[in-house]
Amino acid sequence: MHVCFRRTARHRINVIAEQEKEVCMEKKKRKLSVPHTYVIIGIILVIVTLMTYVIPAGQYDRVMDEASGQEIIVTGSYHHVEQTPVGPFKMVTALAEGMVDASDIIFFCFFAYGLVYMMIKTGAFYGGVSALKRVMRGKEILILPVFMIVFGICGSTFGMYEEVYGLLPAFIGIAIAMGYDGLVGGATVVLGVVTGFAAATLNPFTIGIAQGIAGLPIGSGVWYRIICLVLFEALAIWYVMRYAHRVKKDPSRSIVRDVHFNVDEGMTSEKMEKLPFTGRHKLIMLVFACTIGLLVYGTTQFGWYLSELSALFIIAMFVVGLLGGFGPSEICRKFVEAASEILFGAVVIGVARSLVVVMNEGNIIDSLVYYMSSALTDVPNGIAAVGMVIVQNILNFFIPSGSGQAAVSMPIMANLADSIGMHRQIAVLAFQFGDGFSNMFWPTVIATECGIMGIPLQKWYKFAWPLFIMMFALQVVLIVVATMIGYQ
Questions:
Q1: Residue 63: in which H helix or E strand, if any?
Q2: What is the rounded distance in angstroms from the CA atom of residue 191 to the CA atom of residue 437?
């Protein structure tokens, strides 16, 4: 009896100890929990606002450059202006102004997701993926790398970037249905196009403008940039597929295992294998294919941008809905459902844009360009080239627009290259690397993609930061090699 009592008492002590251990682990987990995406951007917004009090306000004079059609800065014209620090109320006002500034992207996301949502509700989307899997049976592993190459070539040649936002929900659904996770699908699109855009060969919005401002023949030096594109795209594909294989083998290792993706709907690879692909579904997928074809044709031939693409997706959404057997009222109801699901991402886009609003209001962007470029004047060429890459990477936080960054930085970097005996082509290459690859990292850019994907910012960073470090190391190697071989 005494033995039983001691065992019972020992058991109770063990149970209590185990409960206390679980409580401590739960408290520790709460302490280590990462803030919400809005909180992260809000903290950065406060830091940027404080910078407007610390960094001297300044501006460059600007003139219109006939060759590039851009308003560029005049080298040597930097001057201080009256300090315009952003107050607390103005900082909050910037949130609303950011929503207004980013309204074209925000509404484009609503309409693009509306099309994909309509395709899902008609059954055509997953039916089409099922048919694709049957056709590619045994070779499914090639689907995502092939699309990454396609996105990379499009970004590298004609500068496709924001246009792929509408495809993010579709590829998230494809990846989930293939047994991966939503992050794999999103990364296929984002990293594919970011890498191509950054390792640009003929991109008119970055290389074209930068070479025009630097006074270089448009398209010159393309041979070396093709080598860069192949190396960077291969690294991106390897990284995404390595993660994809890991997740498929062990779903518990998924970074986004606790994230609900709106396009998921409990779809699994096994369920999808049994889905029909009817004649109506084929007609709907044909409409989708024609929509993507018109997107490419319109952007390359007519200069379509977000307003025109929004109109294209609105038309396609209604056509798909009608072909799927929905009436006008039902189509509108489903669009409202789609808009409610993408709302988180839409707000992220506007909140992230407020960072740029505050920096412009505080007149600190030109000051940052001036101080960072001044630090590169008296160093050897190889170090200066690496320094240019670092400066351009940092500038991309403050000036997320590729053409805008070229207009601000290239007049300075081109003249800096002349003064230290470096060919201007290397300055263009440094701009290209710095402007593009940090798009996968800085919140002023990647917050938009994360919002559309429905992936918290901290989870994206957990996935992407090792790749960003690898990409940066490759940037340094390639820029040093360029200086050694006299690239021009």
A1: strand 62-65
A2: 9
